[in-house]
Amino acid sequence: MSNLSERLSELMFDEGLNMTQLGDILGCGEAAVSRYCAGAALPTYEFLIKIADYFKVTCDFVLGLEDESKAKNFAAPPPFDRQFKKVCEECKISRYKLHKKTGIAESVMRYWAQGKTKPSVPNLILLAEKGFGCTVDFLVGREI
């Protein structure tokens, strides 16, 4: 979490934004931004993407998983259930194999595939790094 808090604070500083301003921009409020910057909480799936979109950086950069955010054009991510199924098919990996690689319950992944829930940020990182060997941006469908 500290990587995200440091990176978010750095991005805000570079843009000259305070927590209230960023909370208003993202629609999550100052308290949520304060928790992210303090390392007390992680953003939701949706707010991670909003943060990355606003600052025009990769989700992986926001999370501190990469040191540089190459200038890219990003696609609007499709619904996660469709993207999750697509990545599973492209990588030729079943939910059972993902469970074995990541420790994430198959029932949780079934809910993602059915569109009932979206993964938490820690689960996105697990899926990207250990499950698929890809970036978070590829996993959520932001990479063009």
Automatic annotation (TrEMBL):
<feature type="domain" description="HTH cro/C1-type">
    <location>
        <begin position="84"/>
        <end position="139"/>
    </location>
</feature>
<dbReference type="Pfam" id="PF01381">
    <property type="entry name" value="HTH_3"/>
</dbReference>
<protein>
    <submittedName>
        <fullName>Helix-turn-helix transcriptional regulator</fullName>
    </submittedName>
</protein>
<feature type="domain" description="HTH cro/C1-type">
    <location>
        <begin position="16"/>
        <end position="62"/>
    </location>
</feature>
<dbReference type="InterPro" id="IPR010982">
    <property type="entry name" value="Lambda_DNA-bd_dom_sf"/>
</dbReference>
<dbReference type="GO" id="GO:0003677">
    <property type="term" value="F:DNA binding"/>
</dbReference>
<keyword id="KW-0238">DNA-binding</keyword>
<dbReference type="InterPro" id="IPR001387">
    <property type="entry name" value="Cro/C1-type_HTH"/>
</dbReference>
